[in-house]
Amino acid sequence: MHNRSGKSGKVRLMFQDEAGFGRINKPKYCWCRKGIRPSVPCHHIREYRYAYGAVEPLTGESCFLVMPYCNTVCMNLFLNQLSKQYPDDMILLCCDGAAWHKAGILCVPENIRLFFIPPYTPEMNPIEQIWKELRKRGFRNEVFATLEKVLDRLCVSICALTSNVIRSITARSWILSCFY
Prior knowledge:
The protein has helices at 72-85, 127-138, 147-159, 163-170, 173-176; strands spanning 11-24, 44-55, 62-67, 90-95, 112-116. It is α/β, with parallel strands linked by helices. The protein contains five helices and five strands.
């Protein structure tokens, strides 16, 4: 395949989404000895940062970027980073249709084509399971003293995701059947 720049590459089907990570937490179930009530720290400080991500279920390859906001400016930065990561490939990027995915000032690079899942169908976007995995691995029943500590944990948790883990979480049969 040749993309518009004339370079040969492959076509990638990737799924994109954003998720907030911050200092507000939701207590989760935990185990303890019978007769003991667990103590789970909780606080309601509303400081967030957002992980933008795109995953390819077929290979487990991914691109993540932590940003301060969910808006068109940050989406443009993410799309540019994704395009630079796969410069010779055509990326079919499935998004959920958030306002910043369809904004008039969105600048989509030449090697990326956006398409959208129907509204209110997060189950159709396998990257949603990646956010659950990150929260399970790094954000369960813990209070963070600073937003920087949240960012550190988020980056460590993202870097710990191997392509095998991403593939095992996101490679649903209905996606794989498109390629086989």
